[in-house]
């Protein structure tokens, strides 16, 4: 599943290919995407210029000069493929944005779970989103307030996009390990000290360059994650074995020895 750094990378790629250019056509190709973006709606994008491309949570927002917004979400497998309108269409292309300069940006997705919609001026199909995981203003005070009334465990709370936008299953687990927080702890009961550690941990896991050398290695065959997908392996703190549990339908990996409170 694309996590925040991958969506950020995709948005940058899209900016390089499309920013300031004019749309020739937006086409929904797969039936499930046609439902979200019927032809009558997508036609509105024709002739409009792409003025900005922003990321909000895992949504990519293409702001058009008409005040309308194309909203794209990759869900589990989506990605962009940049080519030209004369290239053969990828067999997994589910939608395509064609530009007047001949660029074609295909939304490729094996499982066709991605979505693309066109919001009219003043409309927003975005769900309620909390503070951005990558926002520099994210702090313990924000978490104290956002988690105060949550009656769920901290791990599923971190996946709730109305609490914090853009944190996915992998990095939520990694951040909780970094901050030594038990993913099963009730969200509202995690101490301020732990939440301060969590803020630092989120910054660390979302910026691979800041990761301490030796702890995460990109070597093939060696996991670059501390806990994610490491069930049965030794904790990198050397104190226990990584366990896998299911919370709110998602796998959680953690070390029951060092992740407490
Ligand atoms: Zn441990």
List the helices and strands and how they pair.
Layout: H1 4-18, E1 23-28, H2 31-36, H3 39-42, E2 50-56, E3 59-64, E4 69-73, E5 79-84, E6 93-99, E7 103-108, E8 115-119, E9 131-132, H4 140-147, H5 154-159, E10 164-165, H6 169-178, H7 192-206, E11 243-247, E12 250-254
Parallel strand pairs: 9-10
Antiparallel strand pairs: 1-6, 2-3, 3-4, 4-8, 5-7, 6-7, 11-12
The structure holds zinc ion.
Residues 235, 237, 239-240, 255, 257-258 line the site of zinc ion (ZN).
Describe this structure in words.
Helix content is about 25%, strand content about 25%. The strands form four sheets. The chain has a four-stranded antiparallel sheet. Strands 2-3-4-8 form a four-stranded antiparallel sheet. Strands 9-10 form a two-stranded parallel sheet. By secondary structure, it is an alpha+beta fold. The chain has helices at about 5-20, 30-35, 40, 140-145, 155-160, 170-180, 190-205, and strands at about 25-30, 50-55, 60-65, 70-75, 80-85, 95-100, 105-110, 115-120, 130, 165, 245, 250-255. β6 and β7 form a beta hairpin. The longest helix has 15 residues, at about 5-20. The chain has seven helices and twelve strands. α6 packs across α7 (about 190-205). Zinc ion binds near residues 235 and 237.
Features:
12 strands, 261 residues, binds zinc ion, elongated, 25% helix
């Amino acid at each position: 599943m694309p996590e925040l750094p991958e969506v950020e990378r995709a948005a940058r790629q899209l900016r390089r290919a499309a920013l300031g250019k004019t749309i020739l056509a937006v086409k929904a190709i797969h039936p499930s995407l046609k439902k979200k973006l019927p032809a009558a709606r997508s036609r509105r994008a024709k002739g409009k210029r792409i003025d900005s491309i922003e990321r909000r949570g895992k949504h990519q927002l293409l702001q058009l000069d008409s005040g309308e917004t194309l909203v794209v979400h990759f869900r589990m497998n989506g990605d962009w493929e940049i080519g030209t309108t004369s290239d053969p269409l990828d067999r997994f292309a589910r939608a395509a944005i064609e530009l007047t300069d001949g660029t074609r940006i295909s939304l490729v997705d094996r499982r066709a779970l991605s979505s693309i919609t066109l919001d009219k001026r003043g409309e927003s199909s975005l769900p309620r989103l909390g503070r951005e995981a990558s926002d520099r203003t994210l702090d313990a005070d924000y978490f104290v307030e956002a988690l105060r009334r949550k009656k769920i465990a901290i791990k599923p709370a971190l996946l709730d996009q109305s609490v914090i936008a853009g944190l996915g299953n992998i990095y939520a687990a990694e951040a909780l390990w970094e901050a030594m927080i038990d993913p099963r702890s009730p969200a509202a009961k995690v101490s301020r000290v732990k939440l301060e550690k969590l803020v630092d941990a989120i910054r660390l896991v979302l910026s691979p360059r800041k990761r301490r050398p030796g702890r995460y290695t990109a070597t093939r065959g060696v996991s670059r994650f501390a806990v994610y997908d490491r069930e049965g392996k030794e904790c990198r703190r050397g104190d226990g074995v990584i366990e896998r549990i299911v919370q709110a339908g998602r796998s959680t990996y953690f070390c029951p020895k060092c992740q407490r409170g």
